Every structure is written in structure tokens, then in C-alpha cells.
Amino acid sequence: MTNQLMSPSNPIDFTYLSDFFNRHRLNHASRLILAALHEKCQRQHGDLPRWQQALNDLPSINQAWLKVTDNAINLTGASQTSTTELREKLMAFKPWRKGPFRFLEIDIDTEWDSLAKWQRILDLDIDFNNKTVLDIGCGNGAFLWPIAEKKAKCVVGIDPMWLFYHQFMVFQRYAKCPSIAFLPLGIEQIPTLALFDTVLSMGVLYHRKSPLDHLLHIKQLLKPNGELILETIVLPDRQNTLLTPKDRYAGMRNVWMIPSVSVLIDWLLKTGFSVIQHSPLCKTTLDEQRQTPWMDFYSLNQFLDKHNDALTVEGHPAPYRVIIHAKID
Ligand SMILES: Nc1ncnc2c1ncn2[C@@H]1O[C@H](C[S@+](CC[C@H]([NH3+])C(=O)[O-])CC(=O)[O-])[C@@H](O)[C@H]1O
Q1: What is the extent of the structural domain holding 59?
Q2: Domain assignment of residue 229, yes or no
Q3: Which residue has the CA at smallest separation from atom 6 of ligand 1?
Q4: CA of 218 to the centre of ligand 1 (A)
Q5: Per-residue pLDDT of the chain (329 residues; tens, 9 = 90+)
Q6: Ligand 1 atom 17, closest CA
């Protein structure tokens, strides 16, 4: 593909997206999305020049190849750069939260083992084949690679954080996967057109002030018979319970509501979805989320009660997660 992902005169060049949207029949959204990207690029983030430089400093790699293996999203190839230098270049994109990745011989040990979540998605046996997929709040795009490998027609990831866009580009500049696009935009900037067969919203719902509006918004983005993969924190309670933390939840400031699974299902039914299946409840473990040299801020370990890991430091139930596979009624 003609992939103008980077050019020295205009380092954030999204012009290749017109071609991407045309190829994947997303052209109705093209004009509005390009306008939103243009506007975002006008309001340049202070760290952008540093991250752009860090991308430009990455070495050339011969025969680059990206593959998702059991324990990492793995970029292989041949480069002259020493391990020490390579590690330093990749450290410039810290903090690395989602992964883990392997970049040539360097293991990027991210805060989250996202492949554990991916395994829970695989356990639901969801069919991505030939689907047009949107991943809302995709972080650095860790799930875009395995979804593309499952032969999705195209995968669009959106996340407003410029750092995550650059972490994605660390791999895409070599992998040049023609079926993936990462838009550094928030959900609010995506036109409400029914363009997608499958929408993933993972780790996002509890950050939305109005979770029902989020579900209604997703419904507008789905084609008839479209499917939702909703992953979120829930209460371990079997009853109809809902937590609205007054202040923080597990150290996170912007958490609005955490429902029990039964409330979550009621929200889905109320907003016009029917539930196909859901995963078992899964307590987030310190194997799945922890501090590493690649993400040295506080992590789950510091946000659980030291004497009782069933509780957060604030005294709320510790995080459990569920994945619900639903479809439009
Ligand atoms: N308005 C917004 N629109 C879209 N994304 C947003 C917005 N605001 C924040 N985000 C993004 O939503 C993501 C939430 S993390 C889940 C990552 C991945 N999905 C995961 O399942 O590991 C939470 C977690 O770690 O669980 C972050 O990357 C935000 O930048």
C-alpha cells in the first residue's frame, strides 16, 4: 500500500487515510474524520516533537515481520543497532501500558498483559473474519494486531492519546499492515454512521460519565446485526448493584460507575442490544497488571488494600472484569 504514514516535511501525515477509507468502504466518514484529525494536529501537544523525533531515531530494519505469538506482539527482522541502543530508543516512548511487545531482541514488558484479555476474547470464539471492526479506546493498539490476524477486513483503532499513537507507529512503520488504521481521536469525534460490523469497547465504559449514552452511541456506529464486544470492570456481586465512587476507584480519578453484571446486562437490554454470551468474571491479578521497568508509575499493587486484596485502597471491591458479547436487537 502507499503508506505515507510519515514524511519529514509533515511528520503526521494522515493523507493515506483517504485511500484506506475508500478501500474499506468507509468513505462516508472520510471527510469528517480527516477534518477532526486536521483540527487535532493544529492543537499540537507539547511532547509531539520529542515523540516524532524518537520515531525518526528508530533504526532501519530489513525483512520486518510482525506476528502475534503466545507471549508477545512480536516484530522480527534484521538491524545493525546494538541491544543497548535499541532499548534506549524504545524507552523514549515510556510509559508502555498495553502489550507485551517484542521489538527484535528487546522485550517490552508492559504494565498490562493484554494477551491475557485477548485469550478471554478468543475463548468466546468471536468471528472477526471479513469484518469491519472499530476498537474504541484502543490504547497503543495492542488488540489491533491480533484482530487483523484473525482476518478482519479492516480494523480501526481510536484513542485520543498522542503517546499511544506513537507507540502504535513504532510497529506500524515497519509492519505496514494495510488493514489497520489508528486514529488519534476520541469517540466523540467519530461520525455516528453505521459503518462497522463489530465494535469493541474495552476498559472504557467506567470512564464514561454516561455509560448508557456510550452504549447508544456504539449502537449508531454498528450496521444492522452488528456486534459489540464490551469489556469492563464490574462488581463481583450477583445482585443488582451499582457503585458510583465519590472520589477515586483503585487510584483512578475518572471512574463514574461500576455495575454488577446483572445491571450491565440491563443497561445493554435498555439500549437495544441482546446478549449472546459473556465470559466468566475475572479478578484482575498482579500478574496481569503491574509495575515494570517500562511503566514505572504506580499500578494495581499500590491500589489494593495492603491487608485485604479483596478491596481497593479506597475500600471499594477490587476490580473484576467481564466481557459481554452482544448484538443489536
Ligand atoms: N473519549 C475517548 N474516546 C476513546 N478513547 C478514550 C477516550 N478517553 C480516553 N480514552 C482511552 O481509553 C483507554 C482506556 S484503557 C483501555 C485500553 C484497551 N482498550 C484495553 O482494554 O486494554 C483503560 C484500562 O486500562 O483498562 C485509554 O487508552 C484512553 O486513552
Answers
A1: 1-190
A2: no
A3: 137
A4: 15
A5: 334 444 444 557 888 899 999 999 898 899 999 999 999 988 878 899 999 999 999 999 999 999 999 999 999 999 999 999 999 999 999 999 999 999 999 999 999 999 999 999 999 999 999 999 999 999 999 999 999 999 999 999 999 999 999 999 999 999 999 999 999 999 999 999 999 999 999 999 999 999 999 999 999 999 999 999 999 999 998 899 999 999 999 999 999 999 999 999 999 999 999 999 999 999 999 999 999 999 999 999 999 999 999 999 999 999 999 999 999 98
A6: 139
Query: Strands 106-108 and 73-78: what pairing?
Result: unpaired
What is the enclosing helix (H) or strand (E) of 204? none
Closest protein CA for atom 29 of ligand 1: 137
* Coil, helix or strand at residue 11: coil
* Residue at 202 is within a domain: no
Distance 185 CA to ligand 1 centre (A): 11
Q: Is the ipTM of this complex over 0.95?
A: yes
Q: Judge whether 316 lies within some domain.
A: no
Any known ligand binding at 16? no
Q: How far apart, in whole angstroms, are the C-alpha atoms of residue 319 and residue 292?
A: 20
Domain count for the chain, please give it: 1
Report if residue 34 sits inside a domain.
yes
288 is an annotated ligand-binding site residue: no
- From the CA of 158, give the closest atom in ligand 1: 4
- List Cβ neighbours of 280 (8 Å cut-off, separation of 6 or more): 322
